[in-house]
Amino acid sequence: MSKIAVKGVRSVDLDVNDLERTISFYSTVWNLTIVERTSDSCWFRGTGPYNHILGVHKTNDMPSCRRITFDAADAATVDAFHKRIVDSGCKTQAPRALSTPGGGWGFGFEDPEGRNFAIVSDVHDHQDTDDVCDRPRKIIHVNVNAARIEETNRFMMDVLGFRLVDHSGPLYFLHCDNTDHASIVTATMKTATLNHISFDMPDLESCMRGGGRMRDAGYPIEWGPGRHGPGNNVFCYFAGPEEFPLEYTADVLQIDDTYPYNGPEYWKWPVGRLDHWGITPPHTQRWKRVQDLIKFTSGAYAL
Ligand SMILES: [Fe+2]
Description:
The chain has 303 residues and is of the alpha+beta class. It is built from 5 helices and 16 strands. The chain has helices at 19-28, 75-88, 149-158, 204-216, 285-290; strands spanning 9-16, 33-37, 41-45, 54-58, 64-71, 96-97, 105-110, 116-121, 138-146, 163-168, 171-175, 184-188, 194-200, 223-227, 234-239, 245-250. The protein has an 8-stranded mixed β-sheet. The longest helix has 14 residues, at 75-88. The mean pLDDT is 97. Fe (ii) ion binds at residues 141, 143, 196, 198, 247.
């Protein structure tokens, strides 16, 4: 089998209770830009090329993560991934022309622990892609919790083409067909919930300004600021509206196939430290709760 891998996280879709509050937050506080909205959904872009990086949808059920969507090189690659998904035994749908903003070609599926994913290509993307201070470019990684971590990691590597590049404590960093250190991070947890969604800021200054803007809006930093070990990125974590776990990050390490794997012994912190700078306080109790709170929307894999 030829080696194919997804090209990173294109977008995440969330099911929310208070759609208007959510739209106001992501457009005026989190600093994304609305690309399209309907009476019960809204899609946002970052400053990067992706048509949209976040979709939010009205639900009367518990707030949940509807889907994580990966980018693929072209329609033939999407079709090849679909064959792999079918062969893996996961629930899926046939590849199709998409009616979501920007169109394209793709399909959704449910992974072995019940998470919803999609793989898409040929979406109509943006030409204006200059960085803007204080505005996220894209979603650079999503961290998902796994009750069956070995099975989940095996699926990510064998079916979606990820490579394990670092392992630190409960966290496994999975790199794919781009230069970002990791596009999916898996965490050993009791349930297959959403750990957090990480938005790529253009620089440290933007990450810090974002932290201040969030605090002013009533969303204090729940963990950070600090600089991580694996990925070497700076971080601030927040509980957004309806307790969705969000990260502003910057300076994410860029790597290629020569990057060597390191394990938990390599990434051990000195006693009392949780980041490279040695300045971050421990996670708040609220952060510990929200990073294991949001489930995937049951059965919502289909595009
Ligand atoms: Fe992160």
